[in-house]
Design goal:
Blueprint lengths: L2 H16 L3 H22 L10 H13 L4 H20 L26 H7 L8 H16 L3 H5 L6 E2 L4 E5 L5 E5 L2 H13 L23 H15 L7 H14 L4 H8 L4 H4 L1 H17 L8
Antiparallel strand pairs: 1-2, 2-3
Helix pairs in contact: 1-2, 2-4, 5-9, 6-8, 6-10, 10-11, 10-13
C-alpha cells in the first residue's frame, strides 16, 4: 500500500474510531504530508509502506531539523508517524512496526506561565461592564480562571450548561471525555450578567452558544484569544498572554493554597497525575524564591 493511501486510511480511522479532535487530525495530516514529501525525495516516488524501515525514519528527523523545526515540533511529527505505523500493524497491513524503536527527541520542560494572585484579582476589574462585550469578556475570563477550562471547552458551552444551583459545569474535554467542574460564584454572577445583555449582540436564530461574537454567531477561537490577550495586557507584563495562562494560574493558585494534587488533576481533565505535577514544580520554585528573599540565610551569596 502506498504511503499516501495508508495515511488517508489512518486519518479517517482517527476521526471515526478514535474520535480525535479536528486540531489533532489536522496536525497529524500535516506531519504525514511532510513525511511523504521526505520519502519522495528519497524514493523519487510515493513509496510502499512495506519498503519503509528504520533507515528511512531516522533521517526524517534530521530533515525536519534542517528545515528549522523546534524539538517540540519534531517530536509531534514523529508521534504522527509512529501512530501511523501502529495503525498499519493493527489492521494487518504490516507485520512489524519500523518506527517502534525510533527515540523521540528529549524536550526541556518549561514551567508554565501564570498570573500572580493579585494580578488575577485585578484582571476581573479591567472590563467595561457597561457594554455587552465587556460583560461577555469578563464571564469568559472568569470561567477560564475560576474553573481552569481549556478555551475550546469554554467555547463549546451552550446557554444553560452551567448549573447555578450546584455551581458546576459539565464540559467535553480531550478525546471526548466528559467531566464536571466546579464554577465559582463570581463566574456564575458574571455569566448571569452577560446573559442579560447577550440579546444586544443579536444572536442568530437558533444560536445556542453561551458566548457569541459581534455578528451573533458562536465566538471563535481567534476572537477569544484576542479578548484574553487584551485583558492580560492590562494586568501583567509576562510575555505569554494566552487563555492557557489563566488555566495555568487556576492550577498554580489552587496548589499554592493547599489543594489536593489529584483533585486538581481531575478538574483539569488530565489523564495522568504526572501532567499535573508540573504545577507543583511551579509552587516549589516560588517557595524557594520567597525563602531566598525573606530568610536571613536564604541568599548563599551573602
Amino acid at each position: 500500500m502506498e504511503l499516501t493511501r495508508a495515511s488517508q486510511d489512518f486519518l479517517a480511522a482517527m476521526d471515526v474510531e478514535k474520535g480525535a479532535s479536528p486540531h489533532t487530525i489536522t496536525a497529524y495530516r500535516i506531519a504525514l504530508e511532510q513525511f511523504t514529501e521526505f520519502c519522495r525525495e528519497v524514493y523519487d516516488a510515493d513509496p510502499d509502506v512495506a519498503e519503509i524501515g528504520e533507515a528511512e525514519l531516522r533521517p526524517f528527523l534530521g530533515w525536519l531539523h534542517d528545515k528549522g523545526l523546534a524539538r517540540r515540533s519534531i517530536k509531534m511529527k514523529l508521534a504522527a508517524v509512529k501512530a501511523l505505523f501502529r495503525y498499519l500493524v493493527r489492521v494487518g497491513t504490516l507485520d512489524r512496526n519500523p518506527a517502534r524503536i525510533i527515540a523521540s527527541p528529549k524536550l526541556d520542560r518549561k514551567l508554565p506561565s501564570f498570573l500572580q494572585q493579585d494580578e488575577a484579582i485585578r484582571l476581573t476589574e479591567s472590563f467595561d461592564l457597561t457594554t455587552p462585550q465587556g460583560r461577555r469578556d469578563l464571564a469568559l475570563c472568569e470561567l477560564l480562571y475560576g474553573s481552569g477550562l481549556r478555551i475550546s471547552e469554554v467555547l463549546q458551552l451552550e446557554v444553560g450548561d452551567i448549573d447555578a444551583r450546584s455551581r458546576t459545569v459539565r464540559v467535553l474535554g480531550k478525546r471526548s471525555k466528559e467531566r464536571i467542574v466546579p464554577v465559582t460564584p463570581a463566574a456564575i454572577e458574571a455569566v448571569d450578567a452577560w446573559l442579560q445583555l447577550r440579546g444586544q449582540l443579536e444572536p442568530l436564530a437558533n444560536e445556542t452558544a453561551l458566548f457569541i461574537g459581534d455578528r451573533g454567531k458562536r465566538l471563535g477561537a481567534s476572537s477569544a484569544y484576542a479578548i484574553v490577550r487584551r485583558a492580560l495586557s492590562v494586568v501583567t507584563e509576562a510575555q505569554r498572554k494566552s487563555p492557557h495562562v489563566l488555566r495555568h494560574s487556576f492550577a498554580t493558585h489552587l496548589l499554592d493554597n493547599g489543594a489536593d494534587l489529584k483533585a486538581v488533576s481531575e478538574m483539569l481533565g488530565h489523564s495522568s497525575l504526572s501532567t499535573t505535577q508540573i504545577y507543583t514544580h511551579v509552587s516549589v520554585e516560588r517557595l524557594k524564591e520567597a525563602y531566598q528573599k525573606a530568610h536571613p540565610r536564604g541568599d548563599a551569596d551573602e
